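Quick one:
INPUT:
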């Protein structure tokens, strides 16, 4: 009897498909019934071989063996997965099997999982593709009735295969080349390394940042407060303390006249629906969830709970046919806090989809929305409640009226013999909360209510204060802002023409970005500090020795664009040309590592008891100790010190010793120059050693 074999990516998905197909008979590693057999992979069952499996000579890492550029990387069964692979192989090659259905996740990685199993099993049976965006019975049934021939997705497979080949040859060769050159395990990847470069660049900006003092002058006019506006630049501050004190003196107690009282009504629509990256960003901001955690919760809500549509999407829009079912979907969503708003939306005669429906902006999958599966909300875990509520709330918000508010500006001029000083304040008052009512508990900036005043009204400046502030360095990346940087990597390119070409190119895909961040953390290139992700010394050292071509988002962005075009069938270059460009890049990286002359020493790592442990190399000398004249100056995480500290030398230069005086954070480069020349003069002042050989900073008075 002829049968059809369905290959799913995970057991949980296979069980749902099997239930819809009425496959109730259990076998080892599959479910059967009604002419169908449903089996499953366990994620990847097949992977690419390691270099030493290509040739045993590659077991030893040697520069002369690089680059390793196999035309086609052989495949192998992943360790621990042989049993399930053998089950699938037997089923799909069985003489009773007429054809197959590829039911792995509908995306590039899912396509690769099935095709590698199909190829390694040497299967020749025809197959069709199941492409679904949710795990409801209705979606599965619809997908089964609209199966496409497997060849329809050949572009997607070629893209996935080329991406896997590129990741292997770039990562394998670069990691080996730079590890051998520097004697430390240095993991390098075409996506993870440019992502790390974002963190390193930000850390360098913070380290080099020199704070400047500035002064804000605030006048209390009784029923409102306003800040002085600098006539030179229009800003509400000055860097001149003397001027700030003069303004305070001449304005205090004087009567001001309102010269501008403007009220403008504005409106703002709700944000668009979630794609995965936006969901991860929002959950990081709202709940502190990591990208990895948000993805796992969303995946469970999709696979196990069947409450949301496919989460690994890069679209924030719906197709017209999906929009037709939104009213029915929302009628079945039950979230206590959201139910009144849902009722209000359903009470509208016609739902406004103008902003969220765009068939051209949906590629593989539409935006993440609820499926309408009924659930007892209280039975979800606390984290599942948060993510599900967020997704449902966003859909409801997009169907609600815009937020309407009045923005008020008041300018008050205080006349004196010396000057005409203008003070400005802005406020905002909600006229119609609209969709904002769904987020009423979240803090809103700028929500200051100002009095109703008229031009010509007078107010006395009863109190005038001068507050001293200091400029702040750029903020460290959080997971939310790092995801944004990865998604919009093309926008950070300085070349205007290239930036325009790559404005939609990012690092990685929504499905892979969480894993990339976790990889950077596990390799020790970065660490979490509260909500921030901060580059470590190892990460900063790595970026310092690598050429810009691997640390910049430009090349990776171009590759991602080429892969996307390949997947859609719009590629202007063949797979062979893409592979040739990657091979040329790999040769360049290997040559750069061989000829690298960077004076950088990494902590050595070695295996002990199954664990990798860092072994510190002798610290690099920055110069002769200025205090004892016998030792050498070295660096640790917080300070610079003398190598003869055990013999009593007291030299200690804390890295933040000068920041309280408006000076820079001490870096190895600054200290090296200081030891060589005795002083370093910059735009803000001079660093030098005093008589006691303590590092000192004199700020310029200009």
């Amino acid at each position: 009897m002829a049968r059809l074999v369905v290959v799913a990516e995970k057991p949980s998905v296979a069980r749902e498909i099997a239930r819809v197909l009425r496959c109730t008979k259990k076998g080892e590693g599959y479910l059967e019934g009604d002419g169908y057999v449903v089996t499953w992979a366990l994620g990847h069952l097949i992977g690419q071989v390691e270099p030493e499996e290509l040739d045993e000579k590659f077991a030893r890492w040697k520069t002369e063996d690089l680059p390793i550029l196999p035309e086609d990387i052989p495949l192998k069964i992943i360790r621990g997965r042989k049993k399930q692979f053998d089950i699938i192989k037997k089923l799909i090659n069985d003489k009773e099997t007429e054809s197959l259905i590829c039911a792995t996740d509908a995306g590039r990685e899912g396509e690769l999982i099935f095709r590698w199993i199909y190829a390694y099993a040497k299967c020749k049976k025809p197959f069709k593709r199941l492409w679904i965006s949710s795990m409801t019975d209705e979606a599965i049934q619809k997908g089964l009735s609209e199966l496409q021939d497997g060849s329809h997705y050949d572009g997607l497979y070629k893209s996935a295969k080329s991406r896997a080949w590129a990741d292997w040859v770039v990562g394998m060769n670069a990691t080996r080349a730079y590890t051998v050159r520097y004697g430390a395990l240095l993991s390098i990847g075409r996506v993870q390394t440019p992502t790390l470069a974002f963190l390193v660049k930000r850390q360098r900006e913070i380290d080099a940042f020199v704070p400047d003092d500035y002064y804000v002058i605030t006048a209390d006019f009784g029923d409102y407060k306003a800040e002085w506006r600098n006539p030179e630049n229009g800003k509400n501050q000055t860097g001149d303390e003397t001027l700030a004190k003069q303004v305070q003196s001449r304005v205090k107690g004087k009567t001001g006249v309102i010269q501008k009282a403007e009220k403008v009504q504005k409106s703002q629509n709700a944000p668009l629906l979630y794609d995965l990256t936006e969901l991860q960003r929002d959950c990081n901001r709202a709940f502190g969830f990591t990208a990895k955690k948000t993805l796992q919760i969303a995946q469970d809500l999709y696979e196990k709970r069947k409450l949301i549509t496919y989460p690994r999407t890069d679209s924030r829009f719906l197709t017209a046919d999906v929009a037709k079912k939104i009213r029915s979907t929302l009628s079945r969503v039950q979230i206590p806090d959201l139910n009144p708003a849902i009722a209000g939306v359903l009470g509208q005669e016609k739902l406004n989809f103008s902003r969220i429906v765009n068939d051209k902006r949906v590629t593989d999958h539409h935006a993440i929305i609820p499926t309408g599966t009924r659930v007892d909300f209280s039975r979800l875990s606390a984290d599942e409640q948060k993510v599900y509520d967020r997704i449902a709330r966003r859909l409801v918000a997009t169907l609600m009226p815009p937020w309407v508010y009045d923005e008020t500006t008041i300018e008050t001029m205080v006349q004196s013999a010396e000057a005409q000083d203008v003070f400005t304040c802005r406020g905002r008052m909600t006229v119609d909360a609209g969709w904002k009512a769904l987020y009423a508990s979240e803090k809103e900036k700028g929500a200051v209510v100002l009095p109703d005043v008229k031009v010509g009204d007078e107010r006395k400046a009863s109190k005038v204060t001068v507050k001293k502030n200091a400029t702040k360095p750029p903020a460290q990346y959080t997971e939310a802002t790092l995801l944004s940087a990865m998604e919009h990597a093309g926008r950070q390119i300085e070349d205007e023409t290239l930036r325009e070409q790559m404005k939609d190119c990012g690092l990685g895909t929504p499905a892979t970005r969480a894993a990339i961040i976790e990889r950077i953390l596990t390799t020790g290139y970065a660490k979490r500090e509260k909500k921030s992700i901060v580059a470590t010394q190892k990460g900063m050292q790595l970026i310092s020795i690598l050429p810009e071509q691997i640390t910049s988002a430009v090349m990776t962005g171009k590759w991602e664009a080429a892969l996307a075009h390949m997947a859609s069938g719009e590629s202007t270059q063949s797979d062979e040309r893409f592979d040739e460009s990657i091979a040329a890049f790999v040769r360049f990286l290997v040559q750069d590592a061989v000829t690298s002359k960077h004076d950088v020493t990494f902590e050595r790592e070695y295996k002990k008891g199954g664990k990798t442990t860092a072994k510190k190399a002798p610290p690099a000398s920055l110069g002769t100790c200025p205090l004892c004249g016998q030792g050498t100056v070295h660096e640790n995480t917080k300070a610079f010190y003398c190598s003869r500290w055990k013999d009593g030398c007291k030299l200690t230069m804390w890295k933040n010793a000068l920041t309280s005086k408006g000076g820079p954070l001490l870096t190895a480069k600054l200290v090296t120059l200081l030891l060589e020349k005795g002083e370093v003069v910059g735009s803000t002042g001079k660093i030098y050693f005093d008589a006691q050989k303590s590092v000192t900073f004199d700020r310029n008075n200009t």
